[in-house]
Amino acid sequence: MIKPLWAVAGVALVGITGVVGAVVVASPGGEEELVQQAETATPSPEASETATPAPSPAPSPIIELPSPSPSLAACDPNPPAPPGTKLWRWGDVTVLIPEDGAVRAVGTDVGQERRPALEISADGWGRTVIDASTAAIISQDPKGDRAPQIDSVVATLSVCRFDVSSAPWPYNGDPADGPRMTIGYVSYLEPDPATGMQVLAGMAHSDGTSGSQNVSYLEVTTGRSSMYIGAESGEVMGPADIAHDDEVAFQRFLESLRVQMP
Q1: Could you tell me if 192 and 127 lie in one domain?
Q2: Burial letters for 23-36: b for 16+ Cβ neighbours within 10 Å, e otherwise?
Q3: d(C-alpha 73, C-alpha 162), whole Å
Q4: Which residues contact 3 (CB under 8 A, 6 or more apart)?
Q5: Is 77 helix (H, G, I), strand (E, B) or coil?
Q6: Same domain, yes or no: 99 and 140
Q7: What range does the domain containing 231 cover?
Q8: Residues 173 and 235 in one domain
Q9: What's the rounded Cα separation, in Å, for the pair 222 and 99?
């Protein structure tokens, strides 16, 4: 039997990580239970750390605001980001996120239909959920004194369909120079957030035939696909759900993993 062990929220920039939904993880010879996803990604070789977010105020009622008018025929799916910002994509929506970490973003999904959505917040305030197809604001919590930062980021929302032929690594080209992130025995390269691919990490408690143990895992996701990887073995856990446009990129990400046993 696998039980939730912890779940925290935070970031690992330049790719932003976060908590999203739940995942079924199987323990050999044991039952399957829902395991809450969580993230913690730490530059190698330092140990992973967890972060506790500031308490968020009670959410406001769901609102529906007008979405930006898409310009799908003439838009640039990977426009250059102004200094001090990073282009962040989820689905067909892009936004400019400050590199100073004042505002954080994470890809998620909402509703029973699990509609892809982008979530933006600042120190636990102003949690803003945005439709990843239309950029319409689905809901927004009180922003407090973080309103200027959140509003300035929301103002940069744009709708431009994902173009697999022009997306950075792991879709095309070589990975950019940067530290490898580590969870368990697995180190990985953080995808550029402009790809719309994010890496989340979590831990669960497993009670199987081999005894009681903690199970760490990575979740690699886009607005279309998801794959779970054991943080000790570097192997895919269970069946992956990969869209056609993501197949090569997910394979290249797997090939970039390094497993270093103690």
Answers
A1: no
A2: bebebeeeeebebb
A3: 12
A4: 33, 35, 204, 205, 207
A5: coil
A6: yes
A7: 2-39+168-239
A8: yes
A9: 21
Residue 123 · residue 54 · CB < 8 Å: yes
Model pTM score: 0.70
CB 236 within 8 A of CB 243: no
Q: Which of 133, 159, 185 is the last residue of a domain?
A: 159
The token duo for 262 is: 């103690």
Q: Which residues pair with 95 in a beta bridge?
A: 88
Let me know if residue 45 belongs to a domain.
Answer: no
End residue of a domain, out of 159, 185, 218? 159
Give the C-alpha separation, 244 to 22, whole Å.
23
Which amino acid, residue 56?
Answer: S
pLDDT average per 10 residues of sequence, the chain (262 residues): 38 34 39 40 45 44 42 68 94 94 93 93 93 95 93 94 94 90 93 95 74 85 95 91 96 95 76
Give the integer Cα–Cα distance in Å for 86 and 97. 5
CB proximity list for 53: less than 8 A, separation 6 or greater:
8, 9, 10, 123, 124
Residue 61: the pLDDT is 39
Residue 154 shares a structural domain with residue 212: no
Residues 172 and 234 in one domain: yes
Number of domains within the chain = 2
Which residues in 62-124 belong to E strands, given as ranges? 85-90, 93-98, 104-110, 115-122
Residue 80 lies in a domain: no
